[in-house]
Specification:
CATH architecture: Alpha-Beta Barrel
Structural class: alpha/beta
Number of strands: 11
Shape: globular
Bound molecules: flavin-adenine dinucleotide
Strand order of the largest sheet: 9-8-7-6-5-2-1-11-10
Number of domains: 1
Strand content: 15-25%
Radius of gyration: 20 Å
Largest sheet: 9 strands, parallel
CATH class: Alpha Beta
Length: about 325
């Protein structure tokens, strides 16, 4: 079932959903089940599975020289999606990125998803690889998520890359995209970011999932701005609790967001690790309750492997 159909069926009720990461290469699918088993009591109608492009690492050779080697540390997105559908009967939303794919490989990946009965994709550009100064698409790959939305939409209309194919069966993917309440870090200003967000919607994207934020005002302002710009699709807030002191620096660095002064102060002043975790839980519960009261379509939690914390939060909100 499409994510947007879940929103419609919920009839104004706020749903709960989760995002998980594939385990590091060599890890077991049981790791995923250990995260999700305890969360299934909250009836998530869909679960997102992230996609991770290859990274370059430098390996020292016997000669003393370093060799640049490409490794994929977290493969398995599509296999995990199939396993989730099989085990839990939920909808799985694989993330599909531009980075690392030619347009032909993207088409083949979409065909795999279609054959597996996957109805949804979250379409993203992907970030620059570690050690690359900026995002570099494949030689015959997409440079922006907009181009990937166009390809998925094309397939939904029965248009495949090989124009000699006749009577091709169209796909029917529901297309999610990313939105940034605090602006995408490469965008020169929020107006420019909004302009390209609108283009993705006009190209056929069905809903937006936001980057995490810690101040609900940022989300509400973003939704207002989207509506003023004619973006009328559901906008799902992405939430993550801060639970550790180092995250005061790592989250802003990695996700280009602001942490409210009160939250940062409370984390700094907490007496030990457990007290810090409790501060993060309390903050995320308060955020969740306010968003739910405002009637958001879904609360989407970035689990990042911390099932204990996410469960404690959702128990207080559900
Ligand atoms: P785009 O929409 O392509 O935008 C990128 C930048 O280019 C923006 O600044 C935008 O304003 C600008 N822009 C857009 N279109 C154009 C254009 N035509 N011309 C000029 N400028 C343009 N990354 C992963 O690798 N794997 C994941 O699984 C993953 N999951 C994510 C889930 C969510 C909910 C979010 C919010 C992010 C996720 N990311 C993931 C990170 C994401 O890939 C990065 O934030 C990336 O830098 C931008 O992706 P995008 O889809 O927003 O890109």
């Amino acid at each position: 079932m499409k994510v947007t159909d879940h929103f419609k069926a919920a009839n104004g009720e706020t749903l709960i959903s989760f995002e998980i990461l594939p385990p590091l290469k060599g890890g077991s699918i049981q790791k995923i089940f250990d995260i999700l088993d305890p969360l299934m009591e909250f009836n998530p109608p869909f679960i997102d599975v992230t996609y991770h492009r290859e990274e370059f690492i430098y390996k020292k050779r016997d000669s003393g020289y370093f060799e640049k080697v490409a490794v994929r540390k977290r493969p398995g997105t599509v296999g995990i999606c199939a396993a989730l559908i099989n085990r839990y009967g939920v909808d799985a939303v694989p993330h599909l990125i531009c980075g690392g794919f030619t347009i032909e490989e993207t088409e083949d990946a979409l065909i795999d998803l279609k054959f597996l009965g996957i109805d949804n994709v979250l379409v993203l550009r992907g970030d620059a690889r570690k050690f690359d100064a900026k995002f570099e698409p494949e030689r015959n790959g997409h440079a922006y998520a907009l181009d990937l939305v166009n390809q998925v939409k094309g397939m939904n209309d029965g248009v495949y890359l090989d124009s000699t194919i006749i009577n091709a069966e169209p796909s029917n993917f529901c297309i999610g995209i990313a939105g940034y309440p605090e602006k995408h870090f490469e965008a020169p200003n929020i107006g420019s970011d909004m302009h390209f967000l609108k283009k993705k919607i006009d190209a056929g994207a069905d809903y937006i999932v936001t980057q995490m934020f810690f101040d609900n005002k940022k989300y509400f302002d973003f939704v207002d701005l989207c509506r003023k710009n004619g973006i009328n699709v559901p906008i799902v807030p992405g939430l993550k609790p801060i639970t550790k002191k180092y995250q005061l620096n790592s989250l802003p660095r990695m996700f280009h967001l602001d942490l409210p002064a009160d939250l940062a102060k409370a984390i700094l002043e907490a007496k030990d690790a457990e007290a810090r975790r409790q501060v993060g839980i309390e903050w995320c519960v308060a955020q969740s309750k306010e968003l739910k009261a405002a009637g958001v379509p879904c609360l989407h939690y970035y689990t990042m492997g911390d099932v204990k914390t996410i469960k404690e939060i959702v128990q207080q909100v559900y």
